[in-house]
Amino acid sequence: QVQLVESGGGSVQAGGSLRISCTTPEFASAGCDMDWYRQAAGKQREWVASIATDGTTDYADSVKGRFTISKERYKDTVLLQMNSLKPDDTGIYHCMTRGGAGCLRNWGQGTQVTVSS
Questions:
Q1: Of the candidates 98, 116, 107, 115, which has an alpha carbon nearest to the alpha carbon of residue 6?
Q2: Backbone angles phi, psi at 43, to 5 degrees
């Protein structure tokens, strides 16, 4: 199966911003939705945001109003713009496609986001 590749993480102070990206071949043409998840140390993975094939977005309450998920046209890339970051946003961020058989992907390595107070 094709893998997802996340990038763009880093370390910022609280209140700062980061933009992370997720790339996987042909996810747009396959009609896949895309989800972002995160996992903090010692905690279970939690859903963060989603974007559907029609561009509809959805967010976890904890990030609503601070994070924006979007798709880059013609690049099979999904972005997650994260503003007003908090220490609780720290974790490894993963993306995953969702949809039919053409959307099956292997989990990528994720990208680390660290927010210091």
A1: 107
A2: -125, 165
